[in-house]
Write a structure and sequence with these properties.
The complex is a heterodimer of chains A (370) and B (190). With 370 residues, chain A is α+β, with helices and mostly antiparallel strands. Chain A has 2 domains: 196 residues, outer membrane lipoprotein receptor (LolB), chain A (Clam); 121 residues, Phosphorylase Kinase, domain 1 (2-Layer Sandwich), CATH 3.30.200. Chain A has 7 helices and 18 strands. Chain A has a 9-stranded antiparallel beta sheet with strand order 4-3-2-1-9-8-7-6-5. Chain A has an 8-stranded antiparallel beta sheet with strand order 10-11-12-13-18-17-16-15. Chain B has 190 residues and is mainly alpha-helical. Chain B has a domain of 73 residues. The longest helix of chain B is centred in the middle third of the chain and has 27 residues. Chain B is rod-shaped. Classes of the chains: A alpha+beta (370), B mainly alpha (190). Strand 2 of chain A pairs antiparallel with strand 2 of chain B, so a sheet runs across the interface.
Chain lengths: 370, 190
Protein backbone atom coordinates (compact mmCIF):
# COMPACT_ATOMS: atom_id res chain seq x y z
CA UNK A 1 0.00 0.00 0.00
CA UNK A 2 1.29 3.41 -0.95
CA UNK A 3 1.58 6.47 1.21
CA UNK A 4 0.48 8.69 -1.71
CA UNK A 5 -2.77 6.92 -2.47
CA UNK A 6 -4.80 7.67 0.58
CA UNK A 7 -8.35 8.83 -0.10
CA UNK A 8 -8.59 12.50 -0.86
CA UNK A 9 -4.87 13.03 -1.08
CA UNK A 10 -2.93 13.62 -4.28
CA UNK A 11 0.57 12.46 -5.06
CA UNK A 12 2.08 15.84 -4.22
CA UNK A 13 0.19 15.95 -0.98
CA UNK A 14 1.39 12.46 -0.17
CA UNK A 15 5.00 13.42 -0.65
CA UNK A 16 4.56 16.48 1.49
CA UNK A 17 2.93 14.39 4.16
CA UNK A 18 5.95 12.14 4.12
CA UNK A 19 8.71 14.72 3.94
CA UNK A 20 7.39 17.30 6.36
CA UNK A 21 7.00 14.92 9.30
CA UNK A 22 10.38 13.40 8.72
CA UNK A 23 12.09 16.78 8.92
CA UNK A 24 9.91 18.64 11.33
CA UNK A 25 8.88 16.09 13.88
CA UNK A 26 12.29 15.14 15.19
CA UNK A 27 13.08 18.84 15.72
CA UNK A 28 9.76 19.43 17.40
CA UNK A 29 10.02 16.45 19.67
CA UNK A 30 13.65 17.10 20.47
CA UNK A 31 12.61 20.47 21.74
CA UNK A 32 9.89 18.87 23.81
CA UNK A 33 12.33 16.35 25.19
CA UNK A 34 14.63 19.15 26.28
CA UNK A 35 11.98 21.22 28.01
CA UNK A 36 9.71 18.46 29.23
CA UNK A 37 11.98 15.98 30.97
CA UNK A 38 10.45 12.99 32.62
CA UNK A 39 10.10 13.93 36.27
CA UNK A 40 12.09 11.72 38.58
CA UNK A 41 10.69 10.14 41.63
CA UNK A 42 9.74 12.90 43.97
CA UNK A 43 6.59 12.14 45.79
CA UNK A 44 4.11 9.38 46.26
CA UNK A 45 0.77 10.28 44.75
CA UNK A 46 -2.11 9.62 47.04
CA UNK A 47 -4.67 8.52 44.45
CA UNK A 48 -6.03 8.68 40.94
CA UNK A 49 -7.36 11.87 39.49
CA UNK A 50 -11.04 11.10 38.64
CA UNK A 51 -10.85 13.25 35.52
CA UNK A 52 -7.79 11.35 34.37
CA UNK A 53 -9.50 8.03 35.08
CA UNK A 54 -12.53 9.07 33.05
CA UNK A 55 -10.35 10.23 30.16
CA UNK A 56 -8.45 6.93 30.14
CA UNK A 57 -11.64 4.88 30.09
CA UNK A 58 -13.01 6.93 27.21
CA UNK A 59 -9.71 6.67 25.40
CA UNK A 60 -9.47 2.89 25.82
CA UNK A 61 -12.78 2.46 24.01
CA UNK A 62 -12.34 5.26 21.47
CA UNK A 63 -11.07 2.91 18.77
CA UNK A 64 -14.43 1.14 18.94
CA UNK A 65 -16.20 4.34 17.96
CA UNK A 66 -13.81 6.41 15.86
CA UNK A 67 -12.24 5.83 12.47
CA UNK A 68 -9.06 7.72 11.73
CA UNK A 69 -5.99 7.81 9.56
CA UNK A 70 -2.78 9.70 9.84
CA UNK A 71 0.96 9.90 9.91
CA UNK A 72 2.71 8.88 13.08
CA UNK A 73 6.30 9.24 14.15
CA UNK A 74 7.51 6.36 16.33
CA UNK A 75 10.73 5.93 18.26
CA UNK A 76 11.85 3.17 20.54
CA UNK A 77 14.91 2.66 22.72
CA UNK A 78 16.52 -0.49 24.02
CA UNK A 79 15.85 -1.19 27.67
CA UNK A 80 18.75 -3.63 27.53
CA UNK A 81 21.43 -1.39 26.01
CA UNK A 82 20.12 1.90 27.49
CA UNK A 83 21.99 3.89 24.89
CA UNK A 84 20.89 7.22 23.47
CA UNK A 85 20.42 5.69 20.05
CA UNK A 86 16.81 5.11 19.06
CA UNK A 87 15.11 3.26 16.27
CA UNK A 88 12.66 5.61 14.61
CA UNK A 89 10.29 5.55 11.69
CA UNK A 90 7.34 7.37 10.17
CA UNK A 91 4.35 5.09 9.80
CA UNK A 92 0.97 5.50 8.18
CA UNK A 93 -1.90 4.43 10.38
CA UNK A 94 -5.43 3.67 9.25
CA UNK A 95 -8.15 2.42 11.53
CA UNK A 96 -11.77 1.45 11.07
CA UNK A 97 -14.07 2.06 14.00
CA UNK A 98 -14.48 -1.21 15.87
CA UNK A 99 -12.31 -3.00 13.36
CA UNK A 100 -8.76 -3.50 12.37
CA UNK A 101 -5.80 -1.16 12.33
CA UNK A 102 -3.40 -1.01 9.42
CA UNK A 103 0.13 0.22 9.94
CA UNK A 104 2.33 0.85 6.91
CA UNK A 105 6.03 1.29 7.33
CA UNK A 106 8.26 2.82 4.67
CA UNK A 107 5.55 2.54 2.05
CA UNK A 108 6.03 -1.22 1.77
CA UNK A 109 5.65 -3.09 5.03
CA UNK A 110 2.09 -3.36 6.21
CA UNK A 111 0.69 -4.90 9.31
CA UNK A 112 -2.98 -5.35 10.04
CA UNK A 113 -3.92 -5.62 13.67
CA UNK A 114 -7.19 -7.01 14.86
CA UNK A 115 -8.95 -5.24 17.64
CA UNK A 116 -9.24 -6.51 21.18
CA UNK A 117 -12.53 -8.11 20.23
CA UNK A 118 -10.56 -10.53 18.08
CA UNK A 119 -8.52 -11.90 20.95
CA UNK A 120 -9.28 -14.03 23.94
CA UNK A 121 -8.78 -11.39 26.56
CA UNK A 122 -7.60 -13.15 29.69
CA UNK A 123 -6.93 -10.26 32.03
CA UNK A 124 -10.51 -9.83 33.19
CA UNK A 125 -10.32 -6.06 33.19
CA UNK A 126 -9.85 -3.95 30.09
CA UNK A 127 -6.65 -2.14 29.10
CA UNK A 128 -7.64 0.96 31.06
CA UNK A 129 -8.13 -1.13 34.18
CA UNK A 130 -4.72 -2.69 33.69
CA UNK A 131 -3.17 0.75 33.62
CA UNK A 132 -5.22 1.99 36.56
CA UNK A 133 -4.31 -1.09 38.57
CA UNK A 134 -0.59 -0.67 38.02
CA UNK A 135 -0.16 3.10 38.18
CA UNK A 136 -1.53 6.23 39.72
CA UNK A 137 -2.90 8.58 37.10
CA UNK A 138 -3.39 12.30 37.13
CA UNK A 139 -4.16 15.09 34.70
CA UNK A 140 -0.91 16.90 33.94
CA UNK A 141 -2.13 19.70 31.66
CA UNK A 142 -3.11 20.28 28.09
CA UNK A 143 -1.21 20.43 24.84
CA UNK A 144 -1.54 20.49 21.06
CA UNK A 145 -0.84 17.42 18.93
CA UNK A 146 -1.18 17.52 15.13
CA UNK A 147 -3.17 20.71 15.51
CA UNK A 148 -5.70 19.20 17.91
CA UNK A 149 -6.39 20.02 21.57
CA UNK A 150 -5.37 17.27 23.95
CA UNK A 151 -5.33 16.61 27.68
CA UNK A 152 -2.11 15.18 29.07
CA UNK A 153 -2.47 12.26 31.50
CA UNK A 154 0.49 10.98 33.47
CA UNK A 155 0.78 7.45 34.87
CA UNK A 156 3.12 7.30 37.85
CA UNK A 157 4.68 4.44 39.71
CA UNK A 158 4.50 4.02 43.43
CA UNK A 159 7.88 5.70 43.77
CA UNK A 160 6.48 8.75 41.98
CA UNK A 161 8.41 8.30 38.75
CA UNK A 162 6.53 8.80 35.52
CA UNK A 163 5.90 5.53 33.65
CA UNK A 164 3.92 7.01 30.79
CA UNK A 165 2.37 10.21 29.41
CA UNK A 166 -0.66 10.13 27.19
CA UNK A 167 -1.97 12.99 25.06
CA UNK A 168 -5.70 12.31 24.71
CA UNK A 169 -7.76 14.10 22.07
CA UNK A 170 -10.49 16.19 23.69
CA UNK A 171 -12.97 15.57 20.91
CA UNK A 172 -12.55 11.85 20.24
CA UNK A 173 -10.49 10.61 23.25
CA UNK A 174 -8.02 9.03 20.84
CA UNK A 175 -4.50 8.81 22.25
CA UNK A 176 -2.59 10.98 19.79
CA UNK A 177 0.77 10.94 21.50
CA UNK A 178 2.41 8.52 23.94
CA UNK A 179 5.65 8.32 25.85
CA UNK A 180 6.92 5.60 28.16
CA UNK A 181 9.83 5.79 30.58
CA UNK A 182 11.94 3.55 32.74
CA UNK A 183 11.83 4.21 36.47
CA UNK A 184 15.02 6.28 36.17
CA UNK A 185 13.57 8.46 33.43
CA UNK A 186 15.17 6.58 30.55
CA UNK A 187 12.80 6.68 27.55
CA UNK A 188 11.51 3.34 26.32
CA UNK A 189 9.23 4.42 23.50
CA UNK A 190 7.44 7.44 22.11
CA UNK A 191 4.99 8.08 19.32
CA UNK A 192 2.98 11.04 18.09
CA UNK A 193 0.65 11.80 15.24
CA UNK A 194 1.98 14.60 13.08
CA UNK A 195 -1.11 14.46 10.92
CA UNK A 196 -4.43 12.86 11.74
CA UNK A 197 -7.77 12.74 9.93
CA UNK A 198 -10.70 11.89 12.15
CA UNK A 199 -13.67 10.03 10.71
CA UNK A 200 -11.88 8.60 7.71
CA UNK A 201 -9.82 5.49 7.56
CA UNK A 202 -8.91 5.65 3.89
CA UNK A 203 -8.78 2.28 2.22
CA UNK A 204 -8.71 0.33 5.41
CA UNK A 205 -8.25 -2.42 6.01
CA UNK A 206 -9.18 -5.87 4.82
CA UNK A 207 -12.41 -4.91 3.11
CA UNK A 208 -11.25 -1.71 1.44
CA UNK A 209 -13.24 1.23 -0.08
CA UNK A 210 -14.08 2.66 3.28
CA UNK A 211 -16.51 -0.09 4.10
CA UNK A 212 -16.94 -0.42 7.78
CA UNK A 213 -15.54 -3.67 9.10
CA UNK A 214 -17.81 -5.62 11.34
CA UNK A 215 -16.36 -6.86 14.54
CA UNK A 216 -14.51 -10.00 13.65
CA UNK A 217 -15.28 -12.62 16.21
CA UNK A 218 -12.38 -15.01 15.79
CA UNK A 219 -13.05 -16.88 19.02
CA UNK A 220 -14.20 -19.92 17.12
CA UNK A 221 -12.03 -19.51 14.06
CA UNK A 222 -8.65 -18.85 15.63
CA UNK A 223 -7.83 -22.15 17.26
CA UNK A 224 -4.44 -20.90 18.33
CA UNK A 225 -5.97 -18.70 21.03
CA UNK A 226 -5.84 -20.26 24.47
CA UNK A 227 -8.35 -19.91 27.28
CA UNK A 228 -7.79 -20.30 30.98
CA UNK A 229 -8.80 -23.98 30.96
CA UNK A 230 -6.31 -24.56 28.14
CA UNK A 231 -3.64 -22.85 30.21
CA UNK A 232 -4.49 -25.02 33.22
CA UNK A 233 -3.99 -28.12 31.10
CA UNK A 234 -0.70 -26.80 29.81
CA UNK A 235 0.49 -26.22 33.36
CA UNK A 236 -0.37 -29.81 34.18
CA UNK A 237 1.81 -30.87 31.26
CA UNK A 238 4.81 -28.96 32.58
CA UNK A 239 4.45 -25.59 30.89
CA UNK A 240 5.06 -22.68 33.20
CA UNK A 241 2.46 -20.15 31.98
CA UNK A 242 2.71 -17.71 34.92
CA UNK A 243 -0.36 -15.57 35.39
CA UNK A 244 1.71 -12.56 36.35
CA UNK A 245 5.43 -11.95 35.86
CA UNK A 246 5.84 -8.80 37.92
CA UNK A 247 3.82 -6.32 39.89
CA UNK A 248 0.95 -5.37 37.61
CA UNK A 249 2.25 -7.26 34.56
CA UNK A 250 -0.63 -9.67 34.07
CA UNK A 251 -1.36 -12.24 31.40
CA UNK A 252 -3.87 -10.81 28.95
CA UNK A 253 -3.48 -13.15 25.98
CA UNK A 254 -2.09 -16.62 25.29
CA UNK A 255 -1.85 -18.46 22.04
CA UNK A 256 -0.02 -21.27 20.36
CA UNK A 257 2.61 -20.21 17.83
CA UNK A 258 3.94 -23.29 16.07
CA UNK A 259 5.54 -25.47 18.73
CA UNK A 260 5.70 -22.53 21.15
CA UNK A 261 3.27 -21.05 23.62
CA UNK A 262 3.12 -17.25 23.52
CA UNK A 263 2.12 -15.52 26.74
CA UNK A 264 1.47 -11.77 26.49
CA UNK A 265 1.74 -9.59 29.59
CA UNK A 266 1.04 -5.93 30.09
CA UNK A 267 0.34 -3.34 32.71
CA UNK A 268 -1.51 -1.23 30.18
CA UNK A 269 1.60 0.61 29.03
CA UNK A 270 4.56 -1.79 29.10
CA UNK A 271 4.42 -5.05 27.19
CA UNK A 272 6.29 -8.33 27.51
CA UNK A 273 5.82 -11.47 25.48
CA UNK A 274 7.09 -14.76 26.87
CA UNK A 275 7.50 -17.74 24.55
CA UNK A 276 7.91 -21.24 25.91
CA UNK A 277 9.26 -24.14 23.85
CA UNK A 278 10.11 -27.71 24.81
CA UNK A 279 13.81 -28.40 24.51
CA UNK A 280 17.14 -26.86 25.39
CA UNK A 281 19.28 -24.14 23.87
CA UNK A 282 22.23 -25.36 21.87
CA UNK A 283 24.95 -22.68 22.15
CA UNK A 284 26.59 -23.92 18.97
CA UNK A 285 23.50 -22.96 16.99
CA UNK A 286 23.16 -19.47 18.47
CA UNK A 287 25.06 -16.86 16.52
CA UNK A 288 24.96 -13.13 16.93
CA UNK A 289 23.84 -13.20 20.53
CA UNK A 290 25.41 -11.63 23.55
CA UNK A 291 25.66 -13.71 26.69
CA UNK A 292 25.21 -12.67 30.27
CA UNK A 293 25.57 -14.66 33.44
CA UNK A 294 22.55 -14.78 35.71
CA UNK A 295 23.06 -16.83 38.86
CA UNK A 296 24.58 -20.10 37.75
CA UNK A 297 23.01 -19.87 34.31
CA UNK A 298 23.49 -18.10 31.03
CA UNK A 299 21.11 -15.70 29.25
CA UNK A 300 21.44 -14.99 25.54
CA UNK A 301 20.41 -11.48 24.56
CA UNK A 302 19.86 -9.15 21.67
CA UNK A 303 19.53 -5.57 22.85
CA UNK A 304 17.00 -4.58 20.20
CA UNK A 305 14.81 -2.64 20.55
CA UNK A 306 12.80 -4.46 21.60
CA UNK A 307 15.02 -6.24 24.10
CA UNK A 308 15.07 -9.97 23.51
CA UNK A 309 16.37 -12.58 25.92
CA UNK A 310 16.58 -16.36 25.78
CA UNK A 311 17.53 -19.01 28.28
CA UNK A 312 16.94 -22.64 29.20
CA UNK A 313 14.99 -23.47 32.34
CA UNK A 314 14.13 -27.06 33.11
CA UNK A 315 13.23 -28.72 29.86
CA UNK A 316 11.85 -25.48 28.45
CA UNK A 317 13.42 -22.71 26.40
CA UNK A 318 12.19 -19.28 27.45
CA UNK A 319 12.27 -16.38 25.00
CA UNK A 320 11.28 -12.91 26.13
CA UNK A 321 10.49 -9.93 23.92
CA UNK A 322 10.26 -6.94 26.21
CA UNK A 323 9.23 -3.34 25.84
CA UNK A 324 9.44 -2.78 29.52
CA UNK A 325 12.02 -2.03 32.19
CA UNK A 326 14.33 -4.96 32.70
CA UNK A 327 13.40 -5.40 36.35
CA UNK A 328 10.17 -6.86 35.01
CA UNK A 329 12.19 -9.53 33.25
CA UNK A 330 14.28 -9.96 36.42
CA UNK A 331 11.26 -11.29 38.27
CA UNK A 332 10.73 -13.80 35.49
CA UNK A 333 14.40 -14.80 35.63
CA UNK A 334 14.06 -15.43 39.34
CA UNK A 335 10.93 -17.50 38.82
CA UNK A 336 12.43 -19.51 35.95
CA UNK A 337 16.16 -19.54 36.72
CA UNK A 338 18.47 -19.96 33.72
CA UNK A 339 20.62 -23.03 33.47
CA UNK A 340 24.27 -23.20 32.47
CA UNK A 341 25.11 -23.47 28.82
CA UNK A 342 24.10 -26.90 27.61
CA UNK A 343 26.63 -29.46 26.56
CA UNK A 344 26.61 -30.62 22.96
CA UNK A 345 24.05 -33.20 22.01
CA UNK A 346 26.68 -35.91 21.71
CA UNK A 347 27.47 -35.55 25.38
CA UNK A 348 23.82 -35.64 26.32
CA UNK A 349 23.38 -38.85 24.38
CA UNK A 350 26.63 -40.48 25.38
CA UNK A 351 27.11 -44.13 26.23
CA UNK A 352 26.75 -43.56 29.97
CA UNK A 353 23.56 -41.49 29.48
CA UNK A 354 22.10 -44.26 27.40
CA UNK A 355 23.06 -46.86 29.98
CA UNK A 356 21.36 -44.77 32.64
CA UNK A 357 18.20 -44.44 30.60
CA UNK A 358 18.25 -48.16 29.84
CA UNK A 359 18.60 -49.02 33.51
CA UNK A 360 15.72 -46.70 34.30
CA UNK A 361 13.60 -48.34 31.65
CA UNK A 362 14.35 -51.82 32.98
CA UNK A 363 13.61 -50.58 36.47
CA UNK A 364 10.24 -49.30 35.33
CA UNK A 365 9.44 -52.72 33.91
CA UNK A 366 10.28 -54.39 37.18
CA UNK A 367 8.46 -51.87 39.34
CA UNK A 368 5.00 -53.29 40.01
CA UNK A 369 3.71 -49.85 41.07
CA UNK A 370 4.81 -48.10 37.91
CA UNK B 1 98.02 -101.86 25.70
CA UNK B 2 96.66 -98.69 27.21
CA UNK B 3 94.36 -98.74 30.17
CA UNK B 4 90.69 -99.33 29.47
CA UNK B 5 89.47 -95.98 30.84
CA UNK B 6 86.08 -95.18 29.21
CA UNK B 7 85.74 -98.70 27.86
CA UNK B 8 85.31 -100.04 31.40
CA UNK B 9 81.59 -99.17 31.41
CA UNK B 10 81.11 -100.73 27.96
CA UNK B 11 82.86 -103.84 29.11
CA UNK B 12 80.71 -104.10 32.23
CA UNK B 13 77.56 -103.48 30.14
CA UNK B 14 78.76 -106.01 27.56
CA UNK B 15 78.55 -103.54 24.72
CA UNK B 16 82.02 -104.20 23.17
CA UNK B 17 82.62 -106.05 19.95
CA UNK B 18 83.97 -109.54 20.17
CA UNK B 19 87.59 -108.68 19.30
CA UNK B 20 87.60 -105.62 21.42
CA UNK B 21 86.23 -107.57 24.34
CA UNK B 22 89.01 -110.22 24.01
CA UNK B 23 91.67 -107.55 23.98
CA UNK B 24 90.15 -105.93 27.06
CA UNK B 25 90.05 -109.19 28.97
CA UNK B 26 93.71 -109.87 28.03
CA UNK B 27 94.57 -106.42 29.35
CA UNK B 28 92.84 -107.17 32.63
CA UNK B 29 95.05 -110.19 33.17
CA UNK B 30 98.13 -107.99 33.21
CA UNK B 31 96.74 -104.67 34.62
CA UNK B 32 95.64 -104.70 38.22
CA UNK B 33 94.50 -101.06 38.06
CA UNK B 34 91.99 -101.69 35.31
CA UNK B 35 90.89 -104.89 36.92
CA UNK B 36 90.08 -103.02 40.12
CA UNK B 37 88.17 -100.34 38.16
CA UNK B 38 86.06 -102.99 36.41
CA UNK B 39 85.29 -104.59 39.74
CA UNK B 40 84.10 -101.25 41.13
CA UNK B 41 81.88 -100.60 38.12
CA UNK B 42 80.30 -104.03 38.37
CA UNK B 43 79.68 -103.57 42.09
CA UNK B 44 77.97 -100.21 41.48
CA UNK B 45 75.78 -101.66 38.77
CA UNK B 46 74.75 -104.54 40.92
CA UNK B 47 73.99 -102.16 43.77
CA UNK B 48 71.67 -100.07 41.60
CA UNK B 49 69.83 -103.09 40.32
CA UNK B 50 69.22 -104.25 43.85
CA UNK B 51 67.41 -100.95 44.82
CA UNK B 52 63.56 -101.03 45.13
CA UNK B 53 61.32 -98.98 42.77
CA UNK B 54 61.16 -95.27 43.73
CA UNK B 55 57.64 -93.85 44.46
CA UNK B 56 57.45 -90.19 43.23
CA UNK B 57 55.15 -87.90 45.18
CA UNK B 58 51.74 -86.90 43.81
CA UNK B 59 52.76 -83.24 43.67
CA UNK B 60 55.81 -84.06 41.66
CA UNK B 61 53.75 -86.08 39.23
CA UNK B 62 51.26 -83.18 38.76
CA UNK B 63 54.07 -80.73 38.16
CA UNK B 64 55.64 -83.01 35.68
CA UNK B 65 52.34 -83.51 33.90
CA UNK B 66 51.93 -79.73 33.57
CA UNK B 67 55.19 -79.67 31.72
CA UNK B 68 53.35 -81.36 28.91
CA UNK B 69 51.54 -78.05 28.04
CA UNK B 70 50.80 -76.71 25.53
CA UNK B 71 48.76 -79.48 24.17
CA UNK B 72 45.82 -81.46 25.23
CA UNK B 73 45.83 -82.11 28.96
CA UNK B 74 47.12 -85.43 29.96
CA UNK B 75 44.64 -87.79 31.50
CA UNK B 76 45.08 -88.11 35.21
CA UNK B 77 46.80 -91.24 36.29
CA UNK B 78 44.58 -94.06 37.36
CA UNK B 79 44.18 -94.41 41.06
CA UNK B 80 45.29 -98.02 41.06
CA UNK B 81 48.16 -97.64 38.64
CA UNK B 82 51.68 -97.65 39.84
CA UNK B 83 53.95 -94.81 38.90
CA UNK B 84 56.67 -95.69 36.47
CA UNK B 85 60.11 -96.32 37.93
CA UNK B 86 62.39 -93.35 37.84
CA UNK B 87 64.81 -95.18 35.62
CA UNK B 88 62.08 -95.82 33.05
CA UNK B 89 60.54 -92.39 33.12
CA UNK B 90 61.17 -89.95 30.30
CA UNK B 91 59.87 -86.38 30.23
CA UNK B 92 57.55 -85.46 27.45
CA UNK B 93 58.48 -82.94 24.89
CA UNK B 94 57.67 -79.60 26.52
CA UNK B 95 58.56 -77.45 23.56
CA UNK B 96 55.64 -75.34 22.29
CA UNK B 97 53.89 -76.48 19.18
CA UNK B 98 54.12 -73.10 17.50
CA UNK B 99 54.27 -69.38 18.34
CA UNK B 100 55.50 -67.54 21.39
CA UNK B 101 54.51 -68.77 24.80
CA UNK B 102 52.70 -65.75 26.34
CA UNK B 103 52.04 -66.16 30.01
CA UNK B 104 52.66 -69.86 29.90
CA UNK B 105 54.91 -70.02 32.84
CA UNK B 106 55.42 -73.21 34.69
CA UNK B 107 53.97 -71.51 37.77
CA UNK B 108 50.42 -71.47 36.37
CA UNK B 109 48.13 -73.41 38.64
CA UNK B 110 44.66 -74.82 37.99
CA UNK B 111 43.26 -72.47 40.59
CA UNK B 112 44.73 -69.46 38.86
CA UNK B 113 43.44 -70.67 35.52
CA UNK B 114 40.01 -71.04 37.02
CA UNK B 115 40.14 -67.54 38.48
CA UNK B 116 41.19 -66.10 35.15
CA UNK B 117 38.41 -67.91 33.36
CA UNK B 118 35.79 -66.77 35.88
CA UNK B 119 37.05 -63.18 35.60
CA UNK B 120 36.93 -63.28 31.82
CA UNK B 121 33.43 -64.70 31.89
CA UNK B 122 32.34 -62.00 34.32
CA UNK B 123 33.77 -59.25 32.17
CA UNK B 124 32.07 -60.58 29.08
CA UNK B 125 28.74 -60.83 30.90
CA UNK B 126 29.07 -57.32 32.30
CA UNK B 127 29.93 -55.93 28.87
CA UNK B 128 26.95 -57.65 27.33
CA UNK B 129 24.69 -56.22 30.05
CA UNK B 130 26.00 -52.70 29.46
CA UNK B 131 25.49 -52.99 25.72
CA UNK B 132 21.96 -54.24 26.32
CA UNK B 133 21.17 -51.35 28.69
CA UNK B 134 22.66 -48.84 26.25
CA UNK B 135 20.52 -50.20 23.46
CA UNK B 136 17.45 -49.97 25.67
CA UNK B 137 18.36 -46.42 26.61
CA UNK B 138 18.77 -45.30 23.02
CA UNK B 139 16.24 -43.14 21.14
CA UNK B 140 12.98 -44.93 20.77
CA UNK B 141 10.47 -44.59 17.99
CA UNK B 142 7.74 -45.96 20.15
CA UNK B 143 4.87 -43.47 20.19
CA UNK B 144 4.09 -44.08 23.84
CA UNK B 145 7.62 -43.24 24.92
CA UNK B 146 8.13 -39.56 25.77
CA UNK B 147 10.64 -38.01 23.44
CA UNK B 148 13.90 -36.70 24.79
CA UNK B 149 14.21 -32.91 24.80
CA UNK B 150 15.59 -31.55 21.58
CA UNK B 151 17.80 -28.59 20.91
CA UNK B 152 15.83 -25.46 20.04
CA UNK B 153 16.75 -22.30 18.20
CA UNK B 154 13.89 -19.88 18.83
CA UNK B 155 12.71 -18.06 15.70
CA UNK B 156 13.40 -14.65 17.15
CA UNK B 157 12.12 -12.52 14.28
CA UNK B 158 8.89 -14.50 14.13
CA UNK B 159 8.48 -14.14 17.87
CA UNK B 160 9.08 -10.40 17.62
CA UNK B 161 6.37 -10.10 14.98
CA UNK B 162 4.01 -12.10 17.17
CA UNK B 163 4.82 -9.79 20.04
CA UNK B 164 3.96 -6.81 17.85
CA UNK B 165 0.68 -8.42 16.87
CA UNK B 166 -0.28 -9.07 20.47
CA UNK B 167 0.53 -5.53 21.60
CA UNK B 168 -1.65 -4.12 18.81
CA UNK B 169 -4.71 -4.81 20.92
CA UNK B 170 -3.53 -2.42 23.64
CA UNK B 171 -4.62 1.20 23.12
CA UNK B 172 -1.90 2.71 25.28
CA UNK B 173 1.02 0.62 24.02
CA UNK B 174 3.27 1.90 21.29
CA UNK B 175 3.31 0.39 17.79
CA UNK B 176 7.08 0.34 18.24
CA UNK B 177 7.57 -3.40 17.62
CA UNK B 178 6.86 -2.76 13.95
CA UNK B 179 10.07 -0.80 13.75
CA UNK B 180 12.10 -3.98 14.01
CA UNK B 181 13.15 -3.92 10.40
CA UNK B 182 16.52 -3.42 8.75
CA UNK B 183 15.27 -0.34 6.91
CA UNK B 184 14.17 1.48 10.04
CA UNK B 185 16.26 4.55 10.70
CA UNK B 186 18.47 4.66 13.76
CA UNK B 187 19.18 8.03 15.25
CA UNK B 188 19.73 9.77 18.52
CA UNK B 189 16.09 9.86 19.44
CA UNK B 190 13.82 12.82 19.64
Amino acid sequence: MSFGHRAGTGVAGGLAALVVPVLAVPLLVSALAVFVQAPLASSRDTGDDPRAVELLRQSASSAERVSYSGTQYVSTWSALAKSAAATSAVVQVRHEAGGSTEISLHDRQTAILDGRTATRWLAGDGPADLLLGAYTVRLAGEDQVAGRHTDVVEARRQDGSVAARLWIDRETALPLRREAFDDDGYPLSASAFVEVNIGTSGHCCKTGAGTAVDEVDTFDTDESMLRWNDIAELRDEGWHCPGEIADGMVLYEARQVGDAIQLSYSDGVMTVSVFEQVGWLDPEKLEGYQTADYGDGVVYTRPGPPARLMWSSGDRVITVVAEAPLDVVGDLLDALPPEPAAQPQEDKDGFLDRIGRGAGRVGSWLNPFD
Amino acid sequence: MKHLDERISDLVDDRLEHDERDRALVHLTVCAQCREAVELERDAKNALRSLPDAQPSERLVQKLLLLAEPGEPLPPPAADSHPAPVAAWRPRDTRPVAGPKFGRGPERSPRRVRVVRVAALGMCTTGAMLVLLASLGGPSDSPDTPEAPVSVVPPLEEFTEEHARSTGVLPFAEPAPFLVTPSATVGDGW
